[in-house]
Amino acid sequence: MSAIQITEQNFPSEVLNSSKPVLLDFWASWCGPCRMVSPIIDEIAHERTDIKVGKVNVDEQKELAAQYGVMSIPTLLVLKDGKVVNTSVGARSKEQILQMVSQ
Question: Does the chain have fewer CB atoms within 10 Å around its N or its C terminus?
Fold first, then answer.
């Protein structure tokens, strides 16, 4: 499965009401570290069926970024039952991201 593009419209159904934990990547096309993390996020989305993986373009979804206090990108959030349980700012390795999800 590939990462889902998250928008304000699908956020409630895809993230808040998800029965699985959700890994969200807040990113922008002009962000160098975001481009480093993006293939890792895609890889995790393909490998892990036990979690949902989404990407939020901060330029297109400013309200979602503001709602979650995203000040720097990439910002990764892990949500369970609609609540943030883990946050990471900056580029991370695949192992670090998977560790975030499993905590």
Answer: C
Assigned CATH class of 4-102: alpha beta
Share above pLDDT 70 across residues of the chain, in percent, rounded to a whole number: 100
State the catalytic residue, choosing from 6, 31, 56, 91.
31
31 has catalytic annotation = yes
Written as six digits, the tokens of 41 are: 């996020």
Q: What share of the chain is helix, strand, coil (3-state, %, to 5)?
A: 35, 25, 40
pLDDT band at 2 (very low <50, low <70, confident <90, very high): confident
Q: Which of 6, 24, 34, 78 is catalytic?
A: 34
- 34: annotated active-site residue: yes
